[in-house]
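# nightly structure sweep
# worker-07 picked up a monomer target from the shared queue
# config: single-sequence mode, recycle default, output format = structure tokens
# input follows
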Amino acid sequence: MLPPSHITYTLAAYDLLSRRFAALPKVDYRLLAVAATGPDLIDKPLAALYFYRRYKAAVLFAHTLLVHLAVFIVAIWRKPAGWPYLLAFNGHALLDRLWLFHDTWYWPFRGWRFHVWRKTGSEQGHIGLAYWYTFTRRPELWIWEVGGILAGLWLVWRYRLYRFDRLWFLLRTGRVR
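# output follows
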């Protein structure tokens, strides 16, 4: 899943839950977006700089069960206000369906390798081309991305973020009105 969809699904889910459960802590939507993309923010630069060229792997350490459990354990000792960020970070694993990538999700318990993208030729030489190849060969992935677009449009409509003053308020404060 691409980062914008991780963000919009997470923000929409939190928004729906916060309306249902008034006891949920107020969050900074900017930080929630960062938490939702946290594993990618850690792994993608590592992949681009080294791991992808050498190992053809782009889903690395931050996409492992070990890291997600560590984040969970750290959050237990933190204030309850941190739970939405923890759930956003761990929700990334759910949205990416990481349990299907055994070499990465169970690393290092299944060995020291990460999930290798299928090597099919020159398009695998660059990570951006690998994403293009994946999305053009697996049309079912577009369903998730269209869902992310719809979730984003719903948030824009719900909070009238098409108005500059409301969008600017969100960007400055991390809150919606």
